[in-house]
């Protein structure tokens, strides 16, 4: 066994690294909300009266956002959580530019007691590519 590892050290290293990356991604996703596509999000908004929360910064939000979304930048989420308390029983879909910041926000919301939290997979970019409405108002 030792000879095999020595003879194939680069491959063994790659296998260990790949496995570690998979574990890391799984660990990071634990606190995050489940991802939903733009079409799934639209259904949730229409059928469940889901609340859309945009966690991008003010300039990004002003450049275009999903209609009727609530704007709470990720940097302010912890102190502005009380604004969302009235929606604890409803489905919440969180979005950002690509899905990374919203994933972090989903984790924070879950830790704060929100149970039905979803991350818009691909963020507003995916929403726009799906041909769904974006407003600047």
Provide a descriptive summary of the structure in words.
This protein has 137 residues and is α/β, with parallel strands linked by helices. The protein folds into two domains: 1-30; 31-129, Rhodanese-like domain (Oxidized Rhodanese, domain 1), CATH 3.40.250.10. The chain has helices spanning 2-7, 9-29, 38-48, 58-62, 77-80, 100-111, 123-129; strands at residues 34-36, 51-54, 70-71, 92-95, 117-120. Strands 1-5-4-2-3 form a five-stranded parallel sheet. β4 (92-95), α6 (100-111) and β5 (117-120) form a beta-alpha-beta unit. It is elongated and about 65 Å long. The chain starts with a helix and ends in an 8-residue tail after the last helix.
Report the end-to-end length measured between terminal Cα atoms: 65 Å
Cross-sheet strand order for the largest sheet: 1-5-4-2-3
Taking the sheet with the most strands, its summary is: 5 strands, parallel
Shape: elongated
CATH class of the largest domain: Alpha Beta
Enter the CATH topology name of the largest domain.
Oxidized Rhodanese, domain 1
Domain count, please report it.
2
What is this entry, summarized?
Helix content is 48%, strand content 12%.
Protein traits:
137 residues; alpha/beta; Oxidized Rhodanese, domain 1; 2 domains; 5 strands; 12% strand; elongated
List the helices and strands and how they pair.
Layout: H1 2-7, H2 9-29, E1 34-36, H3 38-48, E2 51-54, H4 58-62, E3 70-71, H5 77-80, E4 92-95, H6 100-111, E5 117-120, H7 123-129
Parallel strand pairs: 1-5, 2-3, 2-4, 4-5
